[in-house]
Write a structure and sequence with these properties.
By secondary structure, the chain is α/β, with parallel strands linked by helices. It has 2 domains: 5-126, Response regulator (Rossmann fold, 3-Layer(aba) Sandwich); 131-227, Winged helix-like DNA-binding domain superfamily/Winged helix DNA-binding domain (Arc Repressor Mutant, subunit A), CATH 1.10.10. Helices cover 43% and strands 20% of the residues. It has 8 helices and 11 strands. The protein has helices at residues 13-25, 36-45, 62-70, 86-94, 107-129, 160-171, 179-186, 195-208, and strands spanning 5-9, 29-33, 50-54, 77-81, 99-102, 135-137, 140-143, 148-151, 154-156, 217-220, 224-227. It has a 5-stranded parallel beta sheet, sandwiched between helices. The protein has a 4-stranded antiparallel beta sheet with strand order 6-7-8-9, with helices on one face. Helix 1 links the parallel strand 1 and strand 2. Helix 1 packs across helix 5 and helix 2 packs parallel to helix 3. The termini are far apart. Keywords: DNA-binding, Phosphoprotein, Transcription, Transcription regulation, Two-component regulatory system.
């Protein structure tokens, strides 16, 4: 069985080591680095299944590291930051992170979130291996095996969570999904305060699809979201 590798990038060695200590107890292999340049190098030179990135790092911050990772890889990314406002969290999600944890943090919560993201990733890989058909919706083509999306022949670059949301709705056209439904099915966690998270991902997804008056993703006020042609 292949070992699961987690990249931890934080310019405070004691924090990176603390996270690694708890994750190693779960059986994960951990790589710790202390700047953005080394984080990018690590991803390019060895398999990484999940990345935990501090936002404020020397030699490329977490945002830039995420941008470069997303050019080639679909691993879950968790931002770790002392910035705790809602706007900071939204910014992190918009920049491509799948989750956002603020400092100081509970190491056990970190472990729980890592487990949840990896579990969801493995479930999606199993679904893709089942050879699911390509979905076409009015010029929008969604390929679940390649995890790729194109619109009128032009590739649309989506984050893993954006793809999962779109694919979820595309599999059930015209069904209305509440924010709670989406969060629990895409994130694989119980819904507590995930409404803003879903809203931000829907907003960026619409932007990337070049939405004009909710052409694809329609808001059903007071209920949720649906995909329609």
């Amino acid at each position: 069985m292949n070992r699961i590798t987690i990249l931890i990038a934080d310019d405070e060695p004691e924090i990176a080591d603390l996270i690694a200590l708890h994750l190693k107890k779960e059986g994960y292999h951990c790589i710790t680095v202390h700047n953005g340049q080394d984080a990018i190098q690590a991803v390019h030179t060895q398999p990484v299944d999940l990345a935990i990135l501090d936002i404020m790092m020397p030699k490329f911050d977490g945002y830039e590291v995420t941008r470069q990772i997303r050019e080639q890889y679909y691993m879950p990314i968790i931002f770790l930051s002392a910035k705790a406002s809602d706007l900071d969290k939204i910014e992190g999600l918009v920049r491509g992170a799948d989750d956002y944890i603020t400092k100081p943090f509970n190491p056990m919560e970190m472990v729980a979130r890592v487990n949840a993201h990896l579990r969801r990733t493995m479930q999606l890989a199993q679904m893709a291996a089942a050879s699911k058909p390509i979905i076409e919706v009015a010029g929008l083509i969604i390929d679940p095996e390649q995890r790729s999306v194109s619109l009128y022949g032009k590739t649309v670059d989506l984050t893993p969570k954006e793809f999962d949301i779109l694919y979820l709705m595309a599999r059930h056209p015209k069904k209305v999904f509440s924010a709670e439904n989406i969060f629990e099915q895409v994130w694989g966690e119980e819904y507590f305060e995930g409404g803003n998270t879903v809203m931000v991902h829907i907003r960026t997804l619409r932007k990337k699809l070049g939405e004009d008056k909710d052409k694809f993703i329609k808001t059903v006020w007071g209920v949720g979201y649906t995909l329609h042609a």
